[in-house]
Design a protein that fits this description.
Largest sheet: none
Distance between the termini: 83 Å
Radius of gyration: 24 Å
Helix content: over 70%
Oligomer: single chain
Number of helices: 4
Shape: elongated
Strand content: under 5%
Structural class: mainly alpha
Order of helices and strands: HHHH
């Protein structure tokens, strides 16, 4: 049991350090994706800390894993936010097909 607690303590420290690295990347680039990753790793560390310190019975352990679900949801929200911001910032140009077609011929001619 002591080995399990010490291994979970190492996981807590590792997740906390990974969160600090992502937070440092956020501070240097101001990219919110790194902030989402940092917060998700900190939630992961809370998950491991809860499993290490609290005597959670097997029947109630699923409540602790809700923290892990929140962490994965933060990662997905960060990816969604990153893709949404990039699509908004990108100028929408005209389609290359529009440049080929002569003006006023928006529809394809049909055979009769």
């Amino acid at each position: 049991m002591a080995l399990l607690v010490s291994m979970r303590g190492a996981l807590v420290a590792s997740c906390w350090i990974a969160g600090l690295f992502f937070f440092r990347f956020y501070r240097s680039t101001s990219d919110r994706l790194f902030l989402f990753f940092a917060s998700s790793f900190w939630v992961f560390s809370l998950n491991w800390l809860t499993l290490a310190l609290l005597p959670v019975p097997q029947e109630a352990r699923h409540l602790v894993f809700l923290l892990r679900l929140i962490a994965f949801a933060l990662i997905l929200a960060g990816i969604w936010d990153k893709n949404r911001r990039e699509n908004r910032m990108k100028p929408r140009g005209r389609s290359p097909l529009v440049l080929i077609l002569p003006t006023g011929t928006a529809e394809r001619p049909t055979r009769q």
